[in-house]
Every structure is written in C-alpha cells, then in structure tokens.
Amino acid sequence: MKKIAYGIPTILLLMSAFSVFICANVFADHVFIEPATGTSVSHDELLAVTDLIGSAVTEDGKNDLVTDKDGADFILKPKLTRLGGSIILSVSKVKDGKTVFSAQLKAAQIDELDKVAHRVTQAVLHGKKAAEDTRVGETTDQEAKEGTQRKPVIHALSVGLGGVVLGNLNTGSNIGFGLGASYGWDLNRVRIKFNAAGALDQNALFVDGGIGLNVFLLTTDFAPYLSGDFGLGLTKTQSTALMDSEVNAGFVGGIGGGIEIFRTSSVSLDLGVRLAMLLKSNAYGNPQTLSVRLGVYF
C-alpha cells in the first residue's frame, strides 16, 4: 500500500507536466519565414538575417518554425536594404494573404544586425513598433547617436524702444519713453527669455526685469504671439509741489502680444504691446505701464 500511495503523486505530477507540454504545443503559433530578400546586400547577409530571425522567433518557446507555408498560422517576410554604410531591416507579418503588421529598424553597421533582427522580430510578433521596443543591451549605435543629438535651439537677443503710458504714478495722460531688451531661446512654438524694461515720463519711473514666455500662434515669417512675464520691479511717482516722489519695489506681472516679422531670418522685427503692473500699491494704486515697442531680434 505504501508503494501504491507513493506512486500516485508521482503519476499525477508526470501527467501534469505532460499536459502543460501538450498545451504549449497546441497553442503555440506556427511560423513560416520566407528567405530574406534585399537590395545591395550579399547572399550571405540574406542567409544570416533569415537565421537570426528564426532564432528570435523560437527563443521564448511560444512559437514553432514550420517548413510548409500551408501549415503556418502566419508568415514573416524579411527584407534588407543597404543605404550607404547602413542597413535597414524590415519584417512584415502576413496572415491569410494580408500584411497585418510590419516593423523596421536601421543598423549603422553590419555587426549590429543581430540586435536589429532580434528587435524587429520581437516587435512584429508582439505588434509593437521596433523603435519603442528597446531593451537593455539592444540599443543600436544609430539610436545612441540620435539620442545625443538635440534639436537646435536658436539664441535670440533683442533691443527695442517705443512709447509708454504710465498709470498710478501721477503722470496724467502724458506719453513717455520706453526701452527694453531681452535674451532668450527660440524653441519654434515658444520663446523663453529673460527680459528687462524701463519707462520714463517726466520724472516718473517704472523699471522691471524677469523671465518671460512668448507663445507663437504661427510658425511662419509673420508670426503673431501672446506673451507673459513675471519678475521684480521698481517705480517712482511724479513729484509735485505738494508731494514728494514715492518709491516702491516688488513683484511685477506682465501680459502682452504682438507680431514678429521675418521670424525665419537671422534678423527679425518685433512689434509688441505689453501691460505690466507692480503688485504693490502706492498712494495712487498699483503702478502700471502700457507700452508699444518696436524691437529687433538678432
């Protein structure tokens, strides 16, 4: 009885293992790989890439290679194309005569063909883009080079001048003189900048500086934009016979807009309007400045 009792668990274990093996083979995909074709590549390279794709198909045990098209669940069609010193591998997944998915990746040199073949094959099997299916140790030299190259940023320096109207600085409705400068980084749709501005009307003064942002509505030669900025500022009211000047300092917020002309050139013109306010009041209220300025970016 002890021998029989000992043998039953063993038999059950063997039956379970056999069932798992049978299920794995029943549900595994049967894959047929057509011989690789190519342009400007050697016969040996075509044979090598076909073998590499076959190894990638069977590595996880979820797929079986078959030698008969008719017995395959789907077909893989690899193609190699040489462009200069680089090689592009593309693999298409064909089912019932229709291409259901394809992926491609570039190898900067022939030595990377094993990485590329593995990446592209796994991407096609799992329905992912090869460029998105990066694994540790499988990044190609081409991707590494692309990763070190940044989109160029254009540095832009500007100066401008124009007319201003000061508010709550006891200047009445006089028009004063304004001057501004900025240094920034043009990122196509936006420009990040450090800016400084000064406005003078009689002996009233409004100066400020901070960080700002231009958001371009178009990326053409004539590019309208909206702007905003925040920083620190200093104001001085117009003195009178009965009242001395009052000086205040604090945070400044500004909003504006305008149009940049010849923006795609190395030198461009900027016609802008800006409304700024000191976030600290004086005897008249919060000092403000409304400016219209013509500037040059270079």
Note down, in words, how this protein is organized.
The chain is of the alpha+beta class and 298 residues long. It has two domains: 27-147, Rossmann fold; 154-297, Porin (Beta Barrel). The chain is built from four helices and 14 strands. The strands form two sheets. It has an eight-stranded antiparallel β-barrel. Helix 2 (43-58) crosses helix 3. It starts with a helix and ends with a strand.
Number of helices: 4
**How many domains would you count in the coordinates?**
2
Globally, the shape reads rod-shaped
Level-1 CATH class name of the largest domain: Mainly Beta
Strand order of the largest sheet: 7-8-9-10-11-12-13-14
Summarize the structure.
With 298 residues, the protein is α+β, with helices and mostly antiparallel strands. The protein is 21% helix and 48% strand.
Keywords:
single chain, 21% helix, Rossmann fold, Porin, eight-stranded antiparallel β-barrel, disordered N terminus, alpha+beta, 4 helices, 14 strands, 298 residues
List the helices and strands and how they pair.
Layout (H helix, E strand, L loop, with lengths): L1 H26 L1 E5 L3 E3 L3 H16 L4 E3 L8 E10 L2 E10 L2 E10 L5 H14 L14 H8 L5 E14 L8 E11 L3 E12 L2 E13 L5 E15 L10 E15 L6 E11 L9 E10 L1
Parallel strand pairs: 1-3, 1-4, 2-4
Antiparallel strand pairs: 4-5, 5-6, 7-8, 7-14, 8-9, 9-10, 10-11, 11-12, 12-13, 13-14
